[in-house]
Amino acid sequence: MSNKLYTLKENSNGELHVFVSKKDASGECLTESMSVCKKMRYNQTVKTHFACQHEIDTRMKLAEIGPRVCGICASYFYGNF
User: Fold this and answer.
1) First-to-last CA distance in the chain?
2) CA separation for the pair 8, 49 (Å, rounded)
3) From CA 26, how far away is CA 39, in angstroms rounded?
């Protein structure tokens, strides 16, 4: 299992994108500026669905949400980028 953490953000069109995240020494969640698909910037978000979740939890939540999640972001967990 990966040690990376993930954050799910929503853009103004209602599409959801996954961002790689990590926690700093104080436990604050820090998120990369581009989604894993490179189609959305952090500053384009209108809503956070979850932050700093482990890979297994992220996979489960993406499966629950379904087609609103960017297909490229979802496939990130099943292929090699």
Assistant:
1) 16
2) 5
3) 30
Indicate if the pLDDT at residue 80 is higher than 60.
no
Q: What is the pLDDT of residues 21-52, one digit of tens each?
A: 999 999 999 999 999 999 999 999 999 999 99
Which residue type does 12 have?
S
For residue 78, what pLDDT is reported?
83
The DSSP output letter for 46 is S
Give me the pLDDT at residue 3, please.
Answer: 72
Look up tokens 């209602």; give the residue: 14
CA of residue 30 relative to chain centroid, distance: 12
- Bridge partners (DSSP) of residue 48 are 9
Residue type, 22: K
Hey, what are 39's tokens?
């189609």
Give the E-state strand segments of 15-66 in sequence order: 16-23, 29-31, 47-54
